[in-house]
Amino acid sequence: MSSASKGKKHRLIKSFGFAFTGIRTAILSERNMKIHLCITIIVIFASIGLSISMIEWLFVILAIGGMLSLEMLNSAIERVVDLVTEEYHPLAKQGKDIAAGAVLIYAMMSVMIGLIIFLPKLFHLFF
Ligand SMILES: Nc1ncnc2c1ncn2[C@@H]1O[C@H](COP(=O)(O)OP(=O)(O)OP(=O)(O)O)[C@@H](O)[C@H]1O
């Protein structure tokens, strides 16, 4: 292997390392991430327990993955805004509020997906 491609591989491994550090930091420092992870575990167990279909799994995976990723992006935006200014600034407020709004939209979509998939199954189970 040439030293150029060795260097590229090393950089790639380092980037993965940074990404995993980011995930770890978000989980350890963000309360919302801990809540999302708890919900994720419950949803995965419910999905297995209720034997959801392949297509339903795809939607569940999209909802979970999208939610966790978006929550992390929101946290990243909050940190960058705090880095730029600790003073009150209307643009800082807009930046944080818009990012929070994006999370809220995806969370509502995820809840809708969850209701569509799980409600009929739970109804069948109990009635
Ligand atoms: N520098 C600032 N200038 C103006 N408004 C700000 C600023 N920092 C925060 N805010 C406002 O205060 C709200 C709360 O900010 P904060 O940084 O505590 O985020 P949060 O939404 O509470 O985050 P968390 O997810 O950590 O609970 C923001 O959504 C924004 O409306």
From TrEMBL:
InterPro entries reported in the protein's UniProt record: DAGK, DAGK_sf, UDPK
GO MF annotations, alphabetized: di-trans, poly-cis-undecaprenol kinase activity
Pfam families associated with the record: DAGK_prokar
Keyword Membrane: yes
Enzyme class: transferase
Primary subcellular site in the record, as a coarse category: membrane
Cellular localisation: Cell membrane
EC number of the protein: 2.7.1.66
Transmembrane segments: 37-64, 98-119
Entry-linked PANTHER family: DIACYLGLYCEROL KINASE
Family in the record: Belongs to the bacterial diacylglycerol kinase family.
Protein name as catalogued: Undecaprenol kinase
